[in-house]
Design goal:
Length: about 270
């Protein structure tokens, strides 16, 4: 759901006071335009340096995601920006992160961002599970498999991000960072590479062969049996087809997922 974006100055005074107890005085605030799910997303220039802050009021239906990201928090750095603090005050939940100057990733063929993303996903696959309870992610495709046994092929004990929208990949000249961990969970180590294939295809400049050739640079991709990738491509296409019937924004991903499923089914 799209959420109206507030400016820093519109937050209740009690919330701003709690934040400034951690940052020092806020000297300037720049509202960020990316993303639709945060009521506040701002770059704060403070007495102690720059910080990125995002947040939701307690009444927002996605407040659970905000708190889940807080629980995962510092354990995803340096793959994601480091969480500095979590404020619950004045009816709001706010997260403060180290500010990283970067831009949204470009998924076009030949983009210099693609090797950086492959390296980040390689680092993620090599990390041990964090010390928080992680939800198994395979249930997200439970209604979209033809054989319930297929679902177990998506299960595993790796930390997976699962939302590789290029807006969630912050890129610098040296590396990429994954942001917005609200949909992270536990699953097969190759899942993020497979999910990235669909996002590359959604750029409408890749072919299934070129997207898979990129994924092959990620060691975890090679841990997926062909039958598992086939089953996942089918289930993911069915999932996005259902979402696209309700949500117009999902139509590009629906086309991409169907294209990959057709390629895997040849």
């Amino acid at each position: 759901m799209e959420t109206r974006r507030l400016r820093w100055e519109e937050l209740p005074a009690a919330v701003r006071t709690e934040v400034q107890a951690r940052t020092g005085a806020v000297l300037d605030a720049q509202t960020m335009t990316g993303g639709n799910n945060n009521a506040l997303a701002a770059r704060l220039h403070t007495a102690r340096g720059e910080v990125f802050v995002k947040g939701l009021p307690y009444t927002h239906p996605q407040i659970w995601a905000q708190r889940w990201e807080a629980a995962l928090g510092i354990q995803v750095a340096p793959i994601g920006p480091r969480l500095l603090w979590h404020v619950e005050a004045g009816g709001w939940s706010l997260l403060g992160f180290e500010y990283t100057a970067g831009r949204q990733a470009c998924y076009a063929p030949g983009s210099p961002d693609l090797p950086l993303l492959a390296q980040t996903l390689t680092e993620l696959a090599d990390r041990p599970l964090p010390t928080v309870a992680l939800e198994p992610v395979e249930w997200r495709w439970a209604e979209h498999v033809s054989d319930p046994a297929d679902l177990q092929q998506f299960a595993g004990d790796a930390l997976v991000h699962t939302d590789l929208n290029p807006a969630n990949v912050l890129t610098t000249s040296r590396r990429s960072y994954l942001v917005d961990w609200a949909w992270a969970g536990r699953g097969a180590v190759w899942l993020d590479a497979a999910l990235a294939v669909t996002w590359l295809l959604a750029s409408e400049r890749h072919t299934p062969a070129s997207a898979e050739a990129w994924a092959a640079h990620i060691p975890a991709w090679h841990q997926a049996p062909a039958r598992s990738l086939d089953a996942f491509a089918r289930a993911n296409a069915a999932k996005w087809s259902e979402i696209a019937r309700r949500e117009e924004w999902a139509r590009g991903l629906c086309r991409a997922a169907r294209l990959w499923a057709a390629h895997r089914g040849r």
